[in-house]
Design a protein that fits this description.
The structure holds two protein chains of two kinds.
Chain A lengths: L1 H11 L3 H30 L5 H50 L3 H5 L2 H43 L1 H48 L1 H6 L8 H19 L2 H27 L5 H43 L16 E10 L2 E11 L4 E5 L6 H8 L7 E6 L2 E2 L5 H7 E4 L10 H6 L7 H10 L3 H4 L19 H15 L3 E5 L10 H12 L3 E5 L11 E6 L2 E6 L1 H7 L2 H12 L7
Parallel strand pairs in A: 3-8, 3-9, 6-7, 7-8
Antiparallel strand pairs in A: 1-2, 1-4, 4-5, 9-10
Helix pairs in contact in A: 1-3, 2-3, 2-5, 2-10, 3-5, 5-6, 5-10, 6-8, 6-9, 6-10, 9-10, 14-16, 16-17
Chain B lengths: L1 H8 L7 H9 L3 H35 L6 H46 L2 H6 L2 H43 L1 H23 L1 H33 L3 H38 L2 H14 L4 H10 L4 H30 L16 E9 L5 E10 L4 E5 L6 H7 L8 E6 L2 E2 L5 H7 E4 L10 H6 L6 H10 L3 H5 L18 H15 L3 E5 L10 H11 L4 E5 L11 E6 L2 E6 L1 H7 L1 H14 L7
Parallel strand pairs in B: 3-8, 3-9, 6-7, 7-8
Antiparallel strand pairs in B: 1-2, 1-4, 4-5, 9-10
Helix pairs in contact in B: 2-12, 3-4, 3-6, 3-11, 4-6, 6-7, 6-12, 7-9, 7-10, 8-9, 10-11, 16-18, 18-19, 20-21
The chains are: A alpha/beta, B alpha/beta.
């Protein structure tokens, strides 16, 4: 934990020394009244207490009060500003990091989850560190000064008192170990509740028609009650240990009293010393108890910190800037790829000729989409290699790879902006006439007359004002404008909006001309004239060839083709 | 003061803020009273060691000997142990109460959401609801589990301490009140000024702005990366982050003054006591032991109050969450349903039905037609024509804005929800699998036998792939290694309908497109389940519905034409146009020129 915190300070270049000095001074001020108190007790025990001396001490105390009034706020501001500055830097570095991560990362993790690292986790660190640091410094110095004094007064008594510290921390440590284990399961159930609840909300229509809402939906109810059980356990089991770690102080104090009193009868100690220990003893423990509370809070913060550091240390993709290649032929050489413990591609080798159309065919889960994602370098292959124009894909920077590729997939992200600007993203320096031309080609113009402001109509958040097919056509317009040499295309996008299928098809027709095209195909009719068809089954290549060749083999492709021909013959009948 | 003001503005509910929290806590009153009582005794027992130390002190100072009975020390340790146990008991009682309250709240929210019109649930993202049920509900634990015992301690520990001190020496006790008063005054000043409130609001606003900036940044990232425009996106993001830092700096400057004063007051609370004590001692009217007692106990109780000072901002946070919870629980009205049973006639009639999701943007306008019992009615039309919406009105997911829908001759608004849902089945475009066994996913809470379930899944073509799963029908969806394709999930959805065997079926034909490789299996299942039902089919590909008993052509929310396929080809321009486009789309081939 401490290592993580120090890493954080170093990483963000925040001057920890000045914070340290400031808090050191404040810690000294915090401990001063107790120190003075000791001097007073001492003096009061002398045969003739010196009154003016005592008033002097009172004067010093008042003075230190005034000094503290003046500086406490400033030191507090400094420490906190520094932690906020550090967290700002942290947010910026995390943001920078997110830009450089493999795109696949975004497919694997929920974007809300990634955002919550920058939001929630950094905020946790921010508020906790800002509060806990001053407290911890105060406790350390307070305890340090007091123990020095006690040891010099009577080391035996002091040792008894101080012995409570390792005991308490041992107990606290055991408690945190226990808590870590239990909180693991509590967090598991908490996430479980969240997922089950999201499922409930997303599926509420389905549950409604089957009269399964509310308590009748047992899966959700069970998640709620499991969470309750785990939460109670998390409090109940480590609770006694934590309490014990506090009580330990009180017991050692009583032990000290007992030893003190028995030594008094042996005359190896005098009354003022005992009295001093009686009064100071309790004071010694107070900052320690605070420290233990802060320690627990810091532990909690550490889980956030770990998530932050994990993201900061996540591996990036290397490669150099490459703008133009001589050829855009793509080659897979014995590529193996696993995702979430599942092997999706197994030693796959094939070539995709340039300026031709290659179709990937196979049942869902056969690896078609993965191949497209690997070409776009969303992920790096684990074994084997992919080359574009003989150049290893891993040696081309991701920016350059994205620059060579346009993809039209099922999920389109539109910004809450105008249609015009959403198309312009394809090539920001394009002229207005060019945008209009691609809008025409991609059949965007076809639906513009329905919208109030034509190309300048806003699309709503995530494109909510438009139908699926209309969004698709905007994304195709983007791709045409970008004019990248390689096109990755999911053919199923067309059937997302069956009424507009014909328009999307026309848009696709415009997009693919003169490019190296890879189509993930579902309706075989569409890719009948492809130059090359690769048939996949369970992550392996089953057949390769053009339509006629594959029909002749009479294998998997031929059987796909036959069933699809049948399907179109389906008619509704009572 | 603050509670009263909010009370007036929130008349629909009993209360809000602390008041509302207390009402919530009241649901587990007994547990919490127990917790408070235990905390009180804990505080009282906790004082005993101090009292004993005081007597040891006075004994030492008066007699000069240490002849103190060891039994005192024994009692002191007994008190400490007892006090710790009581604290544990108090904490457990309040936590058990708290977690039960959270559980109740969660089930209530889920239940209410199930009863609300779909429009409300769809109006927000699922993430927002999740945040409410996880985070907002969770925060209440802080108040119930920690707040209540802590407040009891924070109030009674100083009271008990002061009581004891007054019984020993009232003059010094009076002086030791001094820092307490100062702390209360200082914090009242800092937390109640309009300026501090304004700052607090601004702080939250600034935080929210940064939050939405970050969310947008992350969401837009994949697209920005692909088009190589991360820089401008990053600039927006970094601006909000810097803005926040800047504001926090200002906020700190303001709030630090009070914090500094409070901290200094608490740390130096001894000074007045010290001065008075010295004067009295040199007067000869104060015993040394008493002086020392006050030096130990006189100001220690203030620290406990610190707990209360963090309480204020916490309550604001909790209350904001509670507001969102109460919005769901109280502000939105659930449907009211009649309780009549359904007649034996399962024809469906739309009578001049008008509907809009948002006032002023009608999706359906004066739609009238009748779907006779045991026939097939197909809805066709360009996207945005309102055909999917129309399908959703039959099970009353939304209430019509004008006109009425009846089953037989009964308005659906007068039919009990339970009854209505028993008679209506829907096949949605999106399938939904729940994290439970395949058996439960098909049964959906009904009391059908396993044989009936297997029979239904045979009809829906899912028996074969279910049997190939590691544990067959007992396989949990979502477990590691269990993967169902979109089409397989759709077929499970169909099995649900086969098993339910409703009298009325609303079917979205686009369902079939979710897994193009297996389209024909879904189509086969379709033709079986539509037998002997009143079927409304939302059609996208016209070739599938040419045999329907009647086809309703919709355009921009209005009925354009009604008739059979051949009639419409003759009479409806729109239908003809759609038919031609469909014929061409079927033949589409990507060609390279």
């Amino acid at each position: 934990m401490i290592r993580n915190i120090i890493y954080l300070f170093n990483f963000t270049h925040v001057n920890i020394k000045r914070i340290f000095l400031g808090e050191l001074f404040h810690g000294f001020l915090l401990a001063l009244p107790t120190g003075m108190l000791l001097l007073v007790i001492w003096e009061l025990f002398s045969d003739v207490p010196n009154e003016s001396y005592l008033w002097k001490i009172t004067g010093i105390m008042s003075l230190s009060f005034i000094v503290q009034l003046l500086v406490a706020g400033k030191i507090y501001v400094y420490t906190n500003k520094m932690t906020y500055r550090m967290c700002s830097k942290l947010r910026l570095s995390l943001g920078d990091r997110l830009q450089k991560l493999p795109l696949g990362y975004y497919k694997k993790r929920d974007p809300g989850d990634l955002a919550s690292i920058i939001l929630q986790d950094v905020t946790n660190v921010e508020t906790i560190l800002g509060h806990a640091l001053p407290n911890i410094f105060g406790s350390i110095f307070g305890t340090f000064f007091l123990s020095l004094f006690l040891i010099s007064t009577d080391w035996q008594m002091a040792v008894i008192l101080l012995f409570a510290v390792p005991c308490a921390f041992l107990l606290a440590f055991a408690a945190t170990l226990l808590m870590k284990k239990l909180s693991h399961s509590q967090i598991h159930y908490r996430n479980e509740t969240g997922s089950r609840f999201i499922e409930y909300i997303l599926g509420i229509r389905h549950l409604k028609v089957h009269n399964q809402t509310g308590e009748k939906f047992k899966t959700l109810e069970k998640a709620f009650s499991d969470l309750r059980k785990a939460s109670i356990k998390l409090e109940a089991i480590p609770g006694p240990l934590i309490l014990l770690s506090f009580v330990v102080f009180e017991f050692f104090f009583l032990l000290m009293v007992y030893v003190g009193l028995s030594r008094l009868t042996e005359n190896t100690i005098n009354i003022p010393v005992i009295v001093a220990f009686l009064i100071i003893g309790y004071r010694l423990y107070e900052p320690l108890k605070l420290f233990m509370v802060d320690y627990a809070v810091l532990n909690y913060m550490n889980t956030s910190l770990v998530r932050i550091l994990d993201l900061l240390k996540a591996p990036l993709q290397g490669g150099e800037k490459t703008t133009v290649l001589e050829s855009y032929e793509i080659e897979f050489k014995k590529v193996t790829f696993s995702y979430l413990d599942r092997e999706i591609l197994k030693e796959v080798s094939f070539t995709i000729p340039q300026k031709a159309m290659t179709a990937l065919v196979g049942a869902s889960g056969s690896g078609k989409t993965t191949i497209a994602n690997l070409i776009a370098r969303f992920w790096d292959v684990q074994k084997g290699a992919i080359t574009i124009g003989q150049k290893d894909l891993n040696r081309i920077s991701t920016e350059s790879v994205y620059g060579m590729i346009s993809e039209v997939f099922q999920d389109v992200y539109l910004f809450d902006d105008t249609i015009y600007h959403n198309i312009l993203i394809g090539r920001p320096d394009a002229k207005e006439a060019e945008v209009k031309e691609v809008a025409e080609k991609a059949q965007v113009m076809e639906f513009l007359h329905q919208l109030p402001d034509g190309l300048n109509s806003r699309v709503g958040e995530g494109g909510s004002h438009l139908s699926g097919g209309q969004k698709q056509r905007i994304s195709i317009a983007r791709a045409i404008l970008k004019d990248a040499p390689i096109i990755l295309l999911d053919e199923a996008t067309a059937s997302l909006d069956p009424e507009n299928e014909i328009y999307i098809q026309q848009a696709i027709q415009e997009l693919v001309q003169e490019k190296t095209v890879v189509v993930i195909a579902h309706k075989l009719q569409t890719i009948r004239s492809a130059d090359k068809i690769i048939v996949l089954e369970n992550g392996k290549i089953k057949e390769e060839g053009n339509h006629d060749q594959l029909l002749k083999i009479d294998g998997l492709y031929a059987s796909f083709w036959k069933t699809q021909q049948q399907t179109t013959g389906w008619k509704l009948a009572v | 003061m603050q509670i009263d003001k909010e009370n007036e503005s929130e008349k629909r509910r009993d209360s809000s803020g602390i008041g509302r929290l207390l009402v919530l806590a009241g649901e587990r009153k007994k547990m919490l009273i127990l917790s408070g009582l235990l905390a009180l005794i804990h505080a009282a027992l906790g004082l005993i060691p101090y009292v004993i130390v005081f007597y040891i002190l006075s004994q030492l100072l008066q007699t000069g000997t240490g002849s103190i009975p060891l039994s005192w020390l024994f009692w002191a340790s007994a008190a400490i142990t007892g006090s710790a146990f009581l604290l544990y008991g108090s904490g457990m009682a309040s936590h058990v109460a708290a977690f039960n309250i959270l559980y109740d709240l969660r089930t209530k929210i889920a239940d209410k959401l199930g009863k609300l019109p779909l429009g409300y649930v769809n109006s927000s993202s699922s993430g927002r609801f999740k945040k409410i049920i996880s985070d907002d509900v969770e925060r209440i634990e802080q108040f119930v589990a920690h707040g209540i015992p802590d407040v009891v301690k924070a109030i009674f520990l100083p009271l008990l301490t002061l009581g004891f001190l007054f019984s020993v020496d009232w003059r010094l006790a009076l002086v030791s009140l001094f820092p307490l008063v100062a702390v209360i005054l200082a914090s009242m000043y800092s937390f109640s000024t309009p300026r501090s409130k304004e700052l607090m609001d601004k702080y939250h606003l600034s935080l929210e702005e940064m939050n939405s900036g970050i969310v947008e940044f992350v969401r837009a990232m994949p697209v920005m990366k692909i088009f190589g425009q991360t820089a401008s996106n990053f600039k927006k993001f970094s601006d909000t982050v810097r803005e926040f830092e800047h504001f926090v700096g200002k906020w700190l400057d303001e709030s630090a003054k009070v914090w500094g004063i409070l901290m200094s007051l608490i740390n130096n609370a001894l000074i007045p006591l010290f001065i008075t004590g010295l004067i009295l001692y040199f007067n000869g009217s104060l015993l040394l032991a008493v002086f020392f007692l006050f030096l130990i106990l006189g100001v220690g109780y203030i620290r406990v109050l610190f707990v209360l000072s963090t309480f204020g901002p916490q309550i604001t946070m909790i209350s904001q969450g509670l507001k969102r919870i109460d919005e769901i629980l109280f502000d939105v009205q659930a449907h009211t349903y009649g309780s009549d049973s359904i007649s034996a006639d399962y024809s469906i009639t739309f009578d001049e039905v008008g509907f809009s999701y948002h006032a002023g943007h009608p999706v359906l306008k004066k739609v009238s037609f009748t779907a006779p019992q045991n026939t097939i009615t197909a809805l066709v039309g360009p996207s945005g024509s309102g055909k999917s919406t129309l399908g959703q009105l039959v099970p009353r997911f939304y209430d019509v804005s004008e006109g009425a829908i009846s089953i037989g001759n009964q308005h659906i608004a007068e039919i009990d929800e339970h009854h209505l849902m028993n008679e209506v089945g829907i096949v949605f475009q999106d399938s939904m699998m729940f994290y439970q066994s395949m058996l439960d996913n098909i049964k959906m809470g009904s009391d059908k036998t396993i044989d009936e379930v297997i029979e239904a899944s045979r009809v829906a073509h899912c028996h074969d792939f279910i049997m190939q799963l590691p544990k067959g029908y007992d396989t949990h969806f979502g477990d590691k290694g269990v993967h169902l394709s979109g089409g397989e999930q759709q077929r499970i959805q169909l099995a649900r309908i086969v098993l339910k065997d409703p009298k009325i079926l609303v079917l979205d034909e686009a369902t079939a497109f979710s897994d193009p490789e297996n389209e024909h299996l879904i189509m086969q299942a379709f033709s079986k389940i539509i037998q002997n039902k009143t079927v409304i089919i939302i059609a996208h590909r016209l070739s599938t519905i040419i045999n329907a008993d009647q086809i309703i052509v919709l355009e921009q929310g209005k009925v354009d034409a009604i008739g059979e396929h051949a009639e419409l080809l003759k009479n409806s321009h729109l239908y003809r146009k759609m038919w031609n486009a469909h014929q061409r789309a079927k033949e589409f081939e990507i060609t390279y020129e």
